[in-house]
Amino acid sequence: MIIKSPIDLELTQLSGQTSQPPWIESDGTFSNVVDVNGIPVIFNVRQSGEFFEFDFEGDVSKKEAISKLSYVYDLDFDLDKFYKYLGNHAELAEMSKFCNGLRLFLAHDPFECVVSSICSANNSIKRWTKSVSQIKCNWGNQHGNYYTFPKSNDLLNVYLDDEDEFNSSNIQDISMCNNNLKNCGVGYRAPYMRMASEMFADEIDLYEIFKMSYDEAFETILEVPGVGPKVADCILLYGFNFRQAFPSDVWIKRIVSHLYFDGKDISVSKVREFGMEEFGKNAGYVQLYLFHYARMSGLMNKLK
Question: Could you tell me if residue 215 is inside a domain?
């Protein structure tokens, strides 16, 4: 079926949003297993003009599947209205030309977004997406060619590294150890992932975060080890759909400084405050477009 909401599917999939790694692509079709009201369903999406085609395999209704699809790809967001908003701001006016069709790619599993966002810190898109995909293959549930992300209860029992695996198993040679988090390439982040798993298994109900105010949710996520303000805002934006979040790092700082502060050196925390105040409910989308505009227009190379 054709879903008549404009989108650039490839740009959205490959934009590095920390909700999840890109879905598996084959001959232009992106596919993944998605939880729909507790039921694993295979989603297949493919670009068709400015829209995209969608089909699914699973024991849910068409209405349920489309509702979940609309959430993941944020299809109810009015891009034309947003582009008019950008056009009314001189600093932002060109962005829709470079990022046309880019949408939020929201988490269908918020715990996957927590771990993905932790893994993304000081990491390249290629490396963190590979690591998270490997975690899914190692400890998720398989459905056809696709894997769910392991639940927090499952991930907290995963070995941290070769030494942990060697000491806690019957393996006689440490060189044979390969069933642990560090083996997935997560490096120093492995203990943070273990502690996050413990917190969401025992202390924090993930789904209560959806009901919180932004400030309460932000403070809650900051309690997770390995999560600073930027990662917390990524989790809130991509994992829980808090549109006022404005994830800010050194790159967003350079871009905002160039566009709004004549290149002056301002702190990342001030950039975050500015973005939230200046862009309000559009902050998350503006941040997403700022980053990709800078990459695709050549601005980022000038700011290095």
Answer: yes
